[in-house]
Design brief:
single chain, 56 residues, 3 helices
């Protein structure tokens, strides 16, 4: 891991700590329903479903 990667990891860790201390968790999804839809598509045996999920 190079210096830029370490700085990126440090930034993510700091953001996670801040989110945890406020009682909130940062996620890239708008809702649990959206997350479940993406999760199901990512785990699908259909290449088209996986592509749709990755393009989300």
């Amino acid at each position: 891991m190079d210096e830029a990667d370490r700085k990126g990891v440090s930034q993510v860790n700091a953001e996670e700590e801040e989110a945890s201390s406020s009682g909130y968790r940062l996620v890239p999804w708008q809702s649990w329903e959206e997350w479940n839809m993406i999760r199901e598509k990512l785990l699908s045996s259909s290449p088209e479903s996986v592509r749709v999920a990755l393009n989300r």
